[in-house]
Each structure stands twice: as structure tokens, then as C-alpha cells.
Amino acid sequence: MESILTETYSIYFNEAAYMALNEHLNKERYSKIFILVDENTHRDCLPIFLSSLETNSDVEIIEMEAGETNKTVETCIQIWHALSELGGDRRSLMINLGGGVVTDLGGFVASTFKRGIDFINVPTSLLAMVDASIGGKTGVDLGVLKNQVGVINQPRMVLVMVSFLSTLDKRQMSSGFAEMLKHGLITSEAYWSQLKETRLQDPMDGYIYQSIRIKNEIVLQDPRENNLRKILNFGHTLGHAIESHFLQKGEKHALLHGEAIAIGMILEAYLSSKLSGMGTHQLEDIKHTLLERYKKVKLSEEDKKGILSLLIFDKKNTHGLVNFVLLKRIGDSVIDQRVPEHLFMEAFAYYEE
Amino acid sequence: MESILTETYSIYFNEAAYMALNEHLNKERYSKIFILVDENTHRDCLPIFLSSLETNSDVEIIEMEAGETNKTVETCIQIWHALSELGGDRRSLMINLGGGVVTDLGGFVASTFKRGIDFINVPTSLLAMVDASIGGKTGVDLGVLKNQVGVINQPRMVLVMVSFLSTLDKRQMSSGFAEMLKHGLITSEAYWSQLKETRLQDPMDGYIYQSIRIKNEIVLQDPRENNLRKILNFGHTLGHAIESHFLQKGEKHALLHGEAIAIGMILEAYLSSKLSGMGTHQLEDIKHTLLERYKKVKLSEEDKKGILSLLIFDKKNTHGLVNFVLLKRIGDSVIDQRVPEHLFMEAFAYYEE
């Protein structure tokens, strides 16, 4: 696959990625290279990655605990200390080898260590490949509030090694696929239709490439999310609140990001049918397609109340109002839509019926 | 005094500052305005500031504990939570009303809350006016290591109200004056000579203006400190280590930033006389001038060892080597100078003799 170039960095694929990385390391001559992993990528991905790495710089491995519940400022403090103690300086490099938690958190730690060192993302999950590692959003959660603390700062490069996906279980793959379905819903009915026909065990390279291109083109036009970039939040306004709510209930209830976003997309598709002109046929198509792939989650009345009270904290809100991205139809979206409160309960009812 | 314009923001003085601020608030219509203070600026400066503030936006006051020992990530966590709980969103504004601790920490909190909100610095100490609040360096300490965590991000405006200096004690004024003396040493012998003749009780407006201009011109040419901006670190390589060391010994031993930097400037002036051609006459002038204003601090052998072992952590170091800014003569400096270790003890001996 060809590389995707952006203004400030490039995204490389598979064998070309290792070549580009080694060339970059040879040119930059970093004082030290830190590789951030979690226990899973330490075991499954790091040996493969190290075997292709060619550098004369010292390499240090830093391991964090896996999982969204560890995407916290407290984990950052541990890693900042580790970087200091291991002699990290302003000419050090951080390589984030992992899923979205590792790339989000590692990107933030690197962007703030000694006021910013270079970092490279090597996403190992489908979600991180098509979403988290692209676009420069870094950050951590504050309590249950997702991504409350972070910066927008681009990596030096992103390296997509599709073979790492073989380390993922089906639920993780499915979570990442939700973001790809979203790319179809917000920009291209043709892509949505292709993805509907795709099974998770099918070869994914082409679709991963297409999703990254879609996201990248949106981000390039509006890196700081003033306008266009907001469309990437389709399904996320309610989806984030759902994810936070179940995170709050404890780890055994927690949904994966894509699982929460899938619910959010059904709910927000319903809102779209009421407010932005999406037809009933397409609404049914979205619900049917998503429920086929993402098992319906039982929501108690208390759950719904908890989710709605978290909405107000979503970082896309301003002036105390909740802004939504809605669909005009599949493949065409509209930002900054305000939703009357009574529709939320209707949307939940539609999801459940 | 005329305003100083930079590429991305402006620095306003005295009455013009309030006018510019109110105009800005009227234009931007922030969803909420948070004013960060410490207990001192809450009592001494906030009432004056609020009496000139004209806005329809909600205003919330957030108070942190004063002092360098509170410039920590832990304090940031408290303020990020406060911002969330008080309904802060991406269209909120943060005004940092205080000395260098408040502007450094508040700038970092704002730059990272929901991936960055606008902030305005209103420095109330001489140090913050001529140094900390200008140039976009934000950050906090990590343990005793100064400014290990932070970002470079410019404020929307800086408002310099010289009248706030009447709230400072002599020791605080003297601390800020050290940075002004540094501005003379690194760029202008004429300015150094003027400052030598100045007493702290003299009118300062003109000198504050000149120091801000000097710093601002340097930062504009090299905002990310790749080259030229490093000259602002004269006296700071050893000075930071000295400050950290005494901070580590406990609050009652702590030196103010400028007091530590004054020692650092004498030591690094000595290194300059050995390595970068500064004459003995000027070296003596620097030592004499600084010791007249900053009482000699007793350094035990243990202190010296502690200071030197902290040197390695200074964030200006790369590849494990310690880089210094040295003077060729008063008013002319040179960056990236490596210093043989044996000279450090000689420099201490010169300071003490």
C-alpha cells in the first residue's frame, strides 16, 4: 500500500513502515528511544517490532497496564517519572506500540515531557489503526470523563502493520470496525455498503487504508476541530456518555469503545430521522446492520438517567448546550445540531424495540 | 506605554490592558471565565482586577495554594476537576492572575483541558511580568525537577499592570530583578549598566517594558527554543539545579527563583571567563553587582554534590551532556557550550571566596 502523506507527518504501511522508521531513526539520531507498551503488546507485538528495528540509540521499554481504566493522569505521572529516571531528554523519542489507550496516553506524555519530545505511533489494534493513532488527538481520562485532559499534537510518523491484528480477539476487532462503519455513514454510502458485506475474518488491508484516508482528509482540512472535523464525532456524543457510564459501573460492565459507539450511532441515527431529514429506510438499515454485529445492551432506567447526566460533560459541548453531529442521509452529515431533550428517551425506546 | 505585538498575541500595559481585555471578552463571548489565583493574589489583586472587568459571561474563581512546592501535576488534577465540575467547556477562558507559579501552571492546565482552551496571563509579580508570563512556556515540576512536564503554547494576551507590584515584598521584587539583570548580561551592556544604578524602589515601568521587549524579540525568532532562545537560560543551568536542591531540602531552605539564578549567573560567569573569553574585569563586575543584591548563600560540600547530581536532569541537556549558555562578554552570549567537570568546583570556590 502506498504511504499517505500529511502536512507534518506520514503514515506508512507494513514492510514500507519498517524501512521508513529505520531511515528516520538513522537521520534523527535520537539520544534515547522509549517504547511504551502494555502487557499484551509487550508479549505479542514487541518481539516482532524489535526484530525489525535498526538503530544505534539506546532503547528502553516502558510498560503500562492495559485497559481504558488506566488511561489516567496517574499513569502519566508514573511514565513521566520513568522517563526522567531513565535519562530521557529533549532529544529522546517515544514510540507508542499498542491500541488506542497506549497511543492516546503515550502521545500526551510525549507532548508534555520537557515541553514536548518526538513520538511515533505504531497502532496494534484495528481501532487505533483507523482512528486513535491518526489525527493528533492525545489525552487521558479524568475520572470517568473521557479525554478531558490532552493536547492536539501530531506524531512524527504513524506505522500501520496490519499483521498485528492477528493478536486481537474478535471483540476487539469488532470494536474497531465500528469506527470504520462510522466513516461510511458520515462520508460515503458506497463505503458503508461495502463494509456491510465484509466479515471480520476477511482481508482488511484495503478497508483500513480507505478508513485512514477518510479520517486523514477530514483532519487535514480542520486539525483543531473547529468545523468539519466534528463530523468524526457522529455516534460519539451519546456513545462517550454510554462508555463513561458503564466504566463508572465497574470494569465487568465496561463496554469497548466501538461497542458504545455502535449504540450511540443507532441513537443518533434516530435523532437524525427526527431532525435532519434521514429517511426511515436508512434508519432501519443502520439499526439492523449494527445490531447484527453488536449485541443489544440492556439499559435500565437508571442507566439512561446516568448516561444523560454525563452528556453535559462531553467536551464537544459549549455554553451548556449539547451539540450533535447528525446525518442528512447515509454518507452526508451535518454538525452543530441541537436536540430537544424529550427525543433522548424516544431514541432509547427505538434502540430497545 | 505602547503595546507590544507578537505574531499570535499582544502584551498590553496598565490602563490600556483593561480596555484591551474588555474588548476581547466582548468579541469572543466566552461561555465561562475562570480566574486562577492563589491566596495572596485572591486577597491583594483580585478585587482590583474584578472592579475593572466588564463582561456578561459567568465568572468563577479557582484558588490554588501559593508557592513553588504547589506547582505540581497534583495541583493540576485538582484544577482540571474544578473546571469540569464548574461546567468548563471548550469555549471557556482561563485568566491566570498571579506570579510565575500561577501563570506557568495555569497556562498548562488551560492548554490541556479538553485539548486546549484560551488563556490570558495577568502577571502580578516582577518575575512573572518580565519572564514567566511571556513566551508561552507552561509547565509544572515533577518532584523536585523543575518544569519537567509542560507544553509551549501562547496565551491570547498578556496584561501587565505595574501597580500590582506594590503588593510584593522586597525579596520578591529582588527575585524578579535577577531576570532583568540577565537580560542585560545576555544582550546589552548598556541595559546592564542602567540596571546596576537602579534601586528596587525606583520607578520600574520603563525597565519592565525594556525587559519584556528583549525577551519577546528572542522568543519571536525561536519560539520552540531550538537555538537563539537558549540564551535566556544563562544562569539557569546551574541555577535550576540550585533551586531544585534547596527545594528538596524543605521549604525553609528554599530559595526564590531569582535568588538561585543569581548564584547560577555568578557560577556561569566564572565558566565564561574560563571558556568563552569573558574578561576578568567583567567577571568581577558581575560577581560584585550580584552579591551586593543577593546575599551569599552558604553551600556545604553535600550541597554542591547534590546540585551537580541534579544537573543531569536539567531539561536543556541532551545525550547525557550538560550544555551551557556562556558569555563572550557582557551583552553577548553563546549557546551549546560544554563544560569540563573539574570547572564546576572551581566555580563554586570563586563564588565563595
How would you characterize the overall build of this protein?
- Two copies of one chain form a homodimer.
- Chain A has 353 residues and is an alpha/beta fold.
- Chain A folds into two domains: 4-167, Rossmann fold, CATH 3.40.50; 170-352, Dehydroquinate synthase-like, alpha domain, CATH 1.20.1090.10.
- Helix content of chain A is 49%, strand content 16%.
- Chain A has 14 helices and eleven strands.
- The first copy, chain A, has a seven-stranded mixed beta sheet with strand order 1-2-9-6-5-3-4.
- In chain A, helix 10 (236-248) packs across helix 11 (257-275).
- The longest helix of chain A is centred in the last third of the chain and has 19 residues, at 257-275.
- At the A-B interface, helix 4, helix 5 and strand 8 of A face helix 4, helix 5 and strand 8 of B.
Give a quick precis of the structure.
Two copies of one chain form a homodimer. Chain A has 353 residues and is an alpha/beta fold.
| Total of helices of chain A | 14
Structural class of chain A: alpha/beta
> Overall mean pLDDT score of chain A?
94
Strand content of chain A: 15-25%
Query: Approximately how much helix is present in the residues of chain A?
Result: 40-55%
Principal-axes shape call of chain A = globular
Into how many domains do the coordinates of chain A divide? 2
Strand order of the largest sheet of chain A: 1-2-9-6-5-3-4
CATH class of the largest domain in chain A: Mainly Alpha
Q: Tell me what the CATH architecture of the largest domain in chain A is.
A: Up-down Bundle
Largest interface: A-B, 38 and 38 residues
CATH fold-level name of the largest domain in chain A: Dehydroquinate synthase-like, alpha domain
What Rg of chain A, in angstroms, do the CA atoms define? Answer: 20 Å
Instruction: Point out poorly predicted stretches of chain A.
Output: none
Function (chains A, B): Catalyzes the conversion of 3-deoxy-D-arabino-heptulosonate 7-phosphate (DAHP) to dehydroquinate (DHQ).
GO biological process, one term (chains A, B): aromatic amino acid family biosynthetic process
GO molecular function, one term (chains A, B): nucleotide binding
Keywords (chains A, B): Cobalt, Lyase, Metal-binding, NAD, Nucleotide-binding, Zinc
